[in-house]
Predict the structure.
Amino acid sequence: MCGIFGYIGTRSALPVLVEGLRRLEYRGYDSTGVAIHDGDQISVHKTVGKVQNLQSVLPSEVPGTMGIAHTRWATHGGVTFVNTHPHASHDGKIHLVHNGIIENFRSLHRRVKAHGIECVGETDSEVLVHLMGIELAGGATPQEAVERTLHLARGTWGLSILFLDHDVLICARNGSPLIIGQGDGEMFVSSDPHPLSAHTQRVVYMEDGDLAILTRDSMKMVTHKGHSIDPTVTVLEDSWSESDLGDSPHFMHKEIYEQPEALRHCIAGRVDREMGSGRLGGMRLGHSTMVQAPHVRLLGCGTANFAAEIGQMLIEKMARIPAVTHISSEFRNNDPVINPKAIYLAVSQSGETADTISAVKEIKLKGGQVFGVVNVVGSTIARLCGQGVYIHSGPEQSVASTKAFTNMVAALTIFATQLGRTRHLSKAKGREIIEHLQQAPHLMESYFENPGPIDEAVALLAEAKSVLFLGRGLSAPVAKEGALKLMELAYIPCLAYPAGEMKHGPIALLEEGSPVVIVAPNDHLKEKTLSALHECRARGAKIILIHEEGDTIASEGDVSIAVPRIHPWLTPLLTVVPLQLIAYSTALHLGKDVDRPRNLAKSVTVE
Ligand code: M6R
């Protein structure tokens, strides 16, 4: 949610900043801007729209070796030119980019006004730069100006700040991620690690309350209390550099087809086939914790929440202990009861989702033990939890999550076998699950060889007023995931229901020709799901049926798409793939921006 990139070095800043923005664009794309310092003056270029729009208004060359850049996802203030970052102080001596929300911006606004300064836009961010300007004009150093301003502010921020009269870049973090990249004679700052990988592997993850004062060859870090700290330099994993589009038409296409390989990464070295158990070292789960845990609670938003729902069912099946999934954004506000003996799992691709971060903090505050199930290494959730499992999908850049979903399901499956083996799961059953899980990447590849009549499904869906998605048991969250994908990419209203609930309300929506997508793998619930299918058909609905290869129910669909057979507990790993392809192809057919759907952002870093 909003992307920040900053540079101070010896190279021309403009191309470095624009490339950084391009790689961060998935965090928000309402408007973009850069500010570049050439030693004498700061020039600002900004525009409403995407990085591509910015490139079209930029001069071919902008002198300067230091600058800041921003891609915005609007919170306070409309999508307009004046609300586009960077924002400047009244005298033009400070320029700033901000990610986060300043909760008390109204009272800060009054304070700014009392100094005779008018804000030009409506953003909460602009008040910060004016307050810093007031401090600087009053004789404060840049560091003091930032510290005193942030002392007044309440809310969240990732900030990168340029000063006209000082050869320094100051960054501050509170609740919105910022990572410093250390080069040779140059420094970078970014909201995400992967734009940094093009320049350096040496990074420092800023913590909440930290301030970083960057020059070309030095980095000073202080806490919010002004204490100096020794930054911990981390070496970025190689996988973060492989985030280019390559030959693929879109990141979503690339990421869908990367799933078999991503899945292999997730599983490799983490299963004990002989013992029929998972082996998740990073979970640091003591035997007594696993044996004594009274229940498991899983948390996540959007796609991560649906993966968690599948994990919940697998944990109950394999470990026979109660498991419940919560929507993170609801969790903290409901004053949850936390059992210190229970196991809490925070599921997130980005590791930066504000709602999930809040939930993790609430659990920790009340003495609970929470484990991250996260993709981005070193992300806030991963570091807050300090224990857990990386799902190892590699960078996911399309706003619509695909390979992270299947890897979350795989990681939770491995966790369920590990927990299950300390309890009721037999060695033979554990082995059976692991053997099938190891075959899943290959089965996905074989599905890609023959993905079925996706175009026929698109033809049924593209003009629909709304689409109903149905599934039972493990397929209910898959139906929800399919509905979310189609809705966020093609902007078609979609409703997902457990198939048995359809007759309790959603059936009223059906009329002649209404498309219904039904996920019906060959499990013990298939016959019941088929009853829902017949009820839909009786009302004139057109059925898009996802089923397993060789199943005679294929004839029940107006469009039937077969996926390879797999163990009934692992079907979500395969049944979700055609739903991803359907959403992708429908959006393309309708001329939508597949990787950058409107109003959305990849990491939702505000509550
Ligand atoms: O980074 P996270 O996994 O925590 O993100 C959670 C959701 O914001 C995310 O899954 C969202 O629903 C996706 N756009 C779905 O495709």
